[in-house]
Amino acid sequence: MPMETANMFNPASKVSKISHCSSMEQYKQMHAKSLKDPEAFWGEISKEFHFEEKVKGKFLDYNFDTTKGKIFVRWLEGAKTNICYNCLDRHVLAGKGDQVAFYWEGNDPADAEVVTYGELLKDVCRVANVLKAKGVAKGDRVAIYMPMVKQLVVAMLAVARIGAVHSIVFGGYSADSLADRMMDAQASVLITADAVWRGPKLIALKEIADDALKLCSAKDLKVKMNLVVQHMNKVTAPQPASNGTAANGNVAKKTHFDDKGNFKVNWDPLVDVWWHEAVSAASSECDPVWMDTEDPLFMLYTSGSTGKPKGVQHTIGGYMLYTATTFKYSFDYHQGDVYFCTADIGWITGHSYVTYGPLLNGATSVLFEGVPTYPHTGRFWEIIEKYKVSKFYTAPTAIRALMKFGDEPVKKYDLSSLAVLGSVGEPINPEAWLWYYRVVGDSNVSIVDTFWQTETGGHVITPLPGATPCKPGSACFPFFGVDVALLDEEGREIKGEGEGYLVFRRPWPGIMRTVYGNHERFETTYFKKFSGFYCTGDGARRDSDGYIWVTGRIDDMLNVSGHLLSTAQVESSLVEHPSVAEAAAVARPHSIKGECLYCFVTLTEGNTFEDKLVAELKNKVRSKIGAFASPDFIQLAPGLPKTRSGKIMRRVLRKIAVGDKDFGDISTLADPSIVEKLFELRPKES
Ligand code: WT7
Question: CA–CA separation, 435 vs 173, rounded Å?
């Protein structure tokens, strides 16, 4: 271990004197109180929020033990609130209507906009009224498929204001994925935009949404309205490249734009409604619907190891307290900060730490539409300088990608406003951690490596700036209310130093409540393996100082650029191709993405393995799941290494993927000779 790592990083930096939690003693005391008396701890925090009616039942009631009956979690039973009211009205009523909620920064640096809390509230009310007029009511599901524009925040809060449930689908997903999610949720309304530029690429969202709607109607899902934001006429298109063609979008240009350069969309007057037309006719006042704290707020689909995505469902009250509190403490948020989270709202990080956490704290944030490398590799740093960002939150994959360009693009900008730098999505390697700390943070910031999941709603293991001395690569200690345990395969607890399954012994307010429409799946996925514990699916190690080091997934999931994918999901896309008889996908380490996909395919009779097929198969996965899921490697497999009972020995495939001949014991395979054959068939470029 390098000296520095052993010494740990002092959290002092710029926050220590004012931080909400300023020492390990204070952290330990607060953490102990949060476990000993959750009602006193969270009850005190809940006083900052507006509840229309107080708790009538138990403050916390739950069962985490499948042998004792149904799994359930209930916080603040009987209380009534509205999260949109707490995000907006509460601040406006307190005289903060003119404060900036978001600095919107477009894909092109020339495009920027400022939105205050007061304006946001009016826009939200207008959209809420549009939804109400279409008959959207409490409990109805509204699907949202949008770029990173302020209307996305408006849409989700409008849905929450009237007690409906949002189901946001990341704008990088394919029509098939969008349709699957809309059908599972039985969404009655879709909100989208015409298109968006992401770097030099055009993403024609409306066109993809149209395809998804066709798939939905073929399966009898009646969608009442597709509310479409007109975005393309407001933004700057990428500059043509020197050869006179558009930077990438030359193909897109021809097919998507008319002679005058206007973006074209197909229009179905029976369902399509322009956002700007509907909204301008709507009233800017709309009473919030007072909801039960345990009513659903949203669902967000995450990969499941069986292949079918799970609609992770969060409820209003607990999620509100938890995202607000984690935002306040993990980033040590103070009035006056400018906060910038680079995650897309289509993922949980965006839900909790672009929209809800910051707005619940009345914070000012940057909402960024683009990508880190467009129009140049210093774009993040340029934005930090421009808005004097003090708290910044991004993913290890972005840090590693930007590290490759060296220090110079960072050093060009004045980043002295930065005080806290966050990381999320996958384990951060110490090299990237140190670069983030030294080069971006000028060795004068607190780094927070936040471990959590779609299911946990908010940070569950994280350092606190000003309190926690950090070790690069460790997410450090549990957040308030989180009771960590490590278990061995037999479910015995590992106390002190050691490695095992990372589990939690009791619920914190932000934990998911169910899998939408399939409570049994919720119980089997998270609670069946170890009675009495929520099982994360990750492994972790506790060192001699008690620090937690998350080691990664221990199920058939892989993490590509911070996005979880299941190998089953990829395999089922591959076998849809008529030439593929069988497929096996494994994770292979990747220097920027963290992990990438390496796939083995067995072909049906009479087919040959050629470049054209490889391209088709990559496309198949892109169109079934989304571009981010595209495999990096596909190799031919005359057979797969299976045990006599037919189970694929994935550890052997992982070895082949990295070119390691140390296969371990393969004697239980039905045909051990297949391993050598597969090794020889590895693609040259791997
Ligand atoms: C999985 C959850 C939470 C928002 C983004 C991903 C991995 C996440 C860390 C971290 C080590 C991490 C885990 C986890 N993960 N953050 N700081 N250190 N691993 O949400 O798609 O639900 O993925 O991401 O494997 O289980 P998600």
Answer: 32
Give the model confidence (pLDDT) of 72-116 as tens digits. 999 999 999 999 999 999 999 999 999 999 999 999 999 999 999
Nearest to 477 by CA among 553, 546, 550: 546
pTM confidence score = 0.92
Helix, strand, coil percent values for the chain (each to nearest 5): 35, 25, 45
Ligand 1 atom nearest to 552, measured from its CA: 25
Q: Is 550 in the pocket of ligand 1 (CB under 6 A)?
A: yes
- Is the CB of 449 inside a 6 Å radius of any atom of ligand 1? yes
CA dihedral (126, 130, 131, 133) in degrees, to 10, reads 130
DSSP string, 474-524: --BSBPTT--EEEE-TTS-B--SSEEEEEEESS--TTS--EETT-HHHHHH
CA 161/CA 129 separation, integer angstroms = 10
Distance 456 CA to ligand 1 centre (A): 10
Tokens of 340: 């910038």
Percent of the chain with pLDDT over 90: 86
- Collapsing DSSP to helix, strand or coil, 46 comes out as helix
Nearest in space to 179 (alpha carbons), one of 148, 146, 151, 145 = 145
Spacing, Cα 457 to ligand 1 middle (Å) = 11
- The answer to whether the bond into 375 is cis (omega within 30° of 0) is yes
pLDDT for the residue 648: 87
The share of the chain scoring above pLDDT 70, in percent, equals 96
| Residue 512 C-alpha from the chain's centroid | 14
